[in-house]
TrEMBL record:
This is NAD(P)-dependent dehydrogenase, short-chain alcohol dehydrogenase family. InterPro entries: KR_dom, NAD(P)-bd_dom_sf, Sc_DH/Rdtase_CS, SDR_fam. It comes from the Bacteria. Keywords: Oxidoreductase. One of its GO terms (biological process) is fatty acid biosynthetic process. GO terms for molecular function: oxidoreductase activity, acting on the CH-OH group of donors, NAD or NADP as acceptor; quinone binding. It holds the Pfam family adh_short_C2. Gene3D superfamilies: NAD(P)-binding Rossmann-like Domain. Residues 9-190 form the Ketoreductase domain. SMART domains: PKS_KR. Belongs to the short-chain dehydrogenases/reductases (SDR) family.
């Protein structure tokens, strides 16, 4: 086997039709993994699948899924198994940004929507993926890999983003709990605390925010999407088997600035 060869491997990437998720999906496909993209936007789903299949290695398929709805998660998992027969790795990447509200202005709806998608969506995705992984048992790729997209905001403060920060801090706690509970099944769980990347989500922010971030990041630049490819392959592969329960900042040094 070549180093980091994922031929025969199957990955789920929620929210994998754009941004960070698509960047990670590219790396997985290039390494030979088949990829199930779970996303809400059918047009973006099709474009992502066409791009991944054009790489000529692992196969890709798109499944419509809103992770805020457990019924859709359950159906997406069933469709993935019908299409690919198994799931070796799950990148729980689907998420939404905060509402830009200060704490005194926070509403119940603004709080609940972010928590439902970012935290509950990740937890329920893991629920249905790990049921399969446990029932199937270990194979040539191990028992299973869970990788959550978290955020540097979960460990550092940012104005008018308390609901988003709280949702991602909860994902960190979920990661540690899952790692401890699922280790007996040879399933690992880790979270990637991403810093500032140029995506559709960050494009919605105040332009001054990007300027402020570029000055605060020690490496003085946003994250590069090409770098996401190797990161995803490492965490999907057997070479990360002894890493679990970790919340790793991927932020150009932002969290230490």
């Amino acid at each position: 086997m070549e180093l980091f060869d994922l031929t025969g491997h199957v990955s789920v990437v929620t929210g994998g039709n754009g941004g960070l998720g698509l960047g990670m999906a590219r790396g997985l496909a290039k390494a030979g993994s088949s990829v199930a993209i779970w996303g809400r936007n059918e047009e973006k789903n099709r474009a992502a699948v066409d791009e991944l299949n054009a790489l000529g290695k692992g196969k890709a398929a798109a499944i419509n899924c809103d992770v805020a709805d457990e019924g859709q998660i359950e159906a997406a998992m069933a469709a993935t198994l019908e299409h690919f027969g198994k799931v070796d790795c799950c990148f729980a990447n689907a998420g939404i940004g905060g509402t830009g509200l200060a704490i005194p202005d926070m509403t119940e709806d603004a709080w609940q929507r972010v928590m439902t998608v970012n935290t509950e969506g990740t937890a329920l995705t893991y629920k249905h993926v790990t049921r399969h992984m446990i029932e199937r048992g270990p194979n040539e790729f191990g028992g299973g890999k869970l990788i959550a997209t978290s955020s540097g905001q979960s460990i550092m403060g940012v104005n008018r983003s308390s609901n988003y920060a709280a949702s991602k801090a909860a994902v960190n706690g979920l990661t540690r709990g899952a790692a401890f509970e699922l280790a007996r099944y040879n399933i690992t769980a880790n979270a990637l605390l991403f810093g500032y990347y140029e995506t559709d989500l960050t494009a919605q922010a105040d332009p001054k925010f990007a300027e402020w971030m570029s000055k605060r990041i020690p490496l003085r630049r946003p994250g590069d999407h090409e770098g996401l490819e190797g990161l995803a392959v490492f965490f999907a592969s057997r070479y990360s088997d002894y890493i679990t329960g970790q919340c790793l900042p991927v932020d150009g040094g932002l969290c230490i600035s």
